[in-house]
Amino acid sequence: MHNGAATTETLAGDVRPLSTARPGERGVIVHVGDHDEHGVLNADELERRLLELGFVEGAAIELLHEGMIGGDPIAVRVDDMRVALRRREAHAISIRFESGN
Amino acid sequence: MTDVTLSPLRAALVGNPNSGKTALFNALTGARQKVANYAGVTVERKEGLLTTPAGRTLSVLDLPGTYSLRARSPDEVVTRDAVLGRLQGETAPDVVVCVADATNLRLILRLVLELKQVGRPFVLALNMFDIAQRQGLQIDIERLSKEIGAPIVTTVATRKRGLEDLLRQVDAVAQTVAPGENVWREPTSADLRHAHAEARRIVKACVKPAERPDTITGRIDGVLLHPAAGLAILLGLLFLMFQAVFTWATPAMDGIEAGFAALSELINGVLPDGLIQSLLVDGLIGGVGSVVVFLPQILILFFFIIMLEDSGYMARAAFLMDKIMGGAGLHGRAFIPLLSSFACAIPGIMSTRVIDNKQDRLTTILVAPLMTCSARIPVYTLIIAAFIPNTTVWGFVSLQGLVMFGLYAAGIVSALTVSFVIRRIFWRGSVEPFMMELPTYKAPDIKNVLMNLWIRARIFMSRAGRIILPLMILVWALSTFPYPPEGATEPAIDYSFAGMIGHFIQPVMEPIGFNWQMSIALIPGMAAREVAVAVLGTVYAVSEADGATDALASLLSSQWSIATALSFLAWYVFAPQCAPTLGVVKRETNGWLWPSVMFFYMVGLAYLAAFVTFRAASAFGLG
Ligand SMILES: Nc1nc2c(ncn2[C@@H]2O[C@H](COP(=O)(O)OP(=O)(O)OP(=O)(O)O)[C@@H](O)[C@H]2O)c(=O)[nH]1
Ligand SMILES: [Mg+2]
Q1: In whole angstroms, what is the distance from residue A17 CA to residue A86 CA?
Q2: Residue B435: which H helix or E strand, with range?
Q3: Contact B266, B303 (CB under 8 A)
């Protein structure tokens, strides 16, 4: 929220799905949706559920923890709340990651 | 003519999960509905009455939490229908009280914008304001109120702060704001984005970020959700819980046992030998007393569960177990219902309402009774105390506690296996998504913990009074009448109705090593598992020639072989010895099909497990 959309957009884009993130990586959501092969929910339903839980473009994201087996599920901070989800669903969320240091 | 009396008002508490709606409901109405620190505690509507400062009767409705009115699971349907006035015989509430977690306003403001479309007058309660203040969060309430077009009050539900204010605003809104037209429709993703943007703008305008944001949760999670240590800690906690159930309770149990023994002595001394004395000593003290003795164990178990629920650990446990649960074909949200089933399968089955997919929900319902509920504790403890030596292994672990842990583990493993089979063979379904909020940790409130334990103790004692006591009178009568004929050689109970019934069923139970006394115990044990212990108490007390005051455990150890005892335990891991559970399954699934399926598969497994156990143990020379 604090670093404003304008600055993040001018940064070199490291845009990847949230499902590829490692613990400690942060960024901003740039897109929620693209995920046609979920298998259970159609893309629209998954998109709406993610939106309702606060995964919306512009929200700040940080990957906090991951599970033991295969790094799944993951716990992420979305603005002021913490949410657990599986990487499979996280694939539908694209993040512009902060260039790491 | 008298003044016009004001008509009663109806208000509904609506908000995101875990925002404190039920805590507020309890504070307002004096109710004692379950409050706990994870999303999805409330799954039903509950109504309570109170009087507002203006003297109006207010009926308050507590509802399941939701992120959206677009109901996706059975609990959310209740909330949607209540808000829209679609529930049978109910109109929409006069006032909606929107309950917000003041430390996380963005999500609830999105829901507020959706709720506005329903057109009901509403008040926003900024709950958990104590936490917001502690964090130094600055909220421009006046501005926020203007932005959302409704009055705002700050509340601390757990400390009963702000309630007067809230009620005054409810009164005022009901008086002055006319309901608008209901223009709600399911939001599309574009609608959702639009509302989010609006909510973000409002938050930016009205809320200054916390000066001292919560860092404790992050630090605790660093340990508890650690990829390697996390699961070990969870297992360690469960292990500690079952050890504690077994070892901590002993002094208190000895005390209760001594009390009942003294009472029997007293009655034996005061009353002449005869029917009344036999009813009191054998039927009531021998029966009900043998169950009441387990109160300390049940309370210790609940103490652990309440601490896990209140602290916020439950959601973490679900996170840690997700991969394993998923491997067994269970839905990610099935964990909390299954863990609740350690207390009792009934609330466990009800809390499956948070699972949206029907097959996932059914699978969870079907395996929930395999989790070791607290009513099995008396049965397990009795048999363990009688047959497992009270020694220590590896220096610090009680062997009896270890066997107890083994029985719990058997329940968990069989639940996972059954669900695996269901999902692989019968419903080859796909995996549902798992998304769950991880609440911030809160120190459990001592008052709340004690009150919950008190409620549990009352439930347990009232079960003893309402179910076990009348059943025991019946069992006592059945095992006393008819009297044996003149010159009978066998113990009197062999000639009684109970003896006849027991002998009649016994051939079926013979292959699994049950004697006829055990066979009798299984029938009233259908009403509730712990009744079996009471029945054994009575049956053996009555069949003892001199009404021996020997504790039931030592009596059993002289009467049963180890193989029989193990077989009885195996039976109890699986058997559906609980009519109320089957009743709840019928209600939750709308029909007799699923309770029947549950009954037969569990009886089948129980018989099989007991058979295998008995035969194996006999083969090892324990028969
Ligand atoms: N510090 C503080 N804690 C609160 C307050 N209100 C509720 N809590 C705690 O917040 C947690 C959630 O409270 P509940 O009343 O169960 O929440 P709910 O909104 O009914 O949750 P669901 O039924 O799951 O939708 C519990 O641990 C409460 O003790 C408050 O005003 N201050
Ligand atoms: Mg609730």
Answers
A1: 13
A2: strand B435-437
A3: no
**Residue A35 scores a pLDDT above 80:** no
Q: What are the tokens at B513?
A: 């090593």
- Superfamily of the domain at B3-214: P-loop containing nucleotide triphosphate hydrolases (3.40.50.300)
pLDDT, position A3: 43
Q: Select from B432, B438, B441 the residue whose CB has the most chain A CBs within 10 Å, as the one to mutate to test that interface.
A: B438
**A44 neighbourhood in chain B, CB within 8 Å:** 189
* B481: helix, strand or coil: coil
Distances B523 to B128, B266, B508, B535 between C-alpha atoms, Å: 50, 31, 13, 10
The encoded tokens of residue B412 equal 């968990």
pLDDT per position as a tens digit, B475-496: 888 888 887 777 767 777 778 8
| SS3 letters across B323-356 | HHHHHCCCCHHHHHHHHHCCCCHHHHHHHHHHCC
Burial class (CB in 10 A: 0-12, 13-18, 19+), B176: exposed
CA dihedral sign, ordered B332, A66, A88, B329: negative
Fold of A2-97: SH3 type barrels. (2.30.30)
Do strands B207-208 and B392-393 pair parallel, antiparallel, or not at all (unpaired)? unpaired
Q: Scan residues 32-91 of B and list those with Cβ closer than 8 Å to A.
A: 67-68, 70, 72
**Contact yes or no for B193/A50 (Cβ under 8 A):** no
A85 contacts on B by Cβ (under 8 Å): 433-436
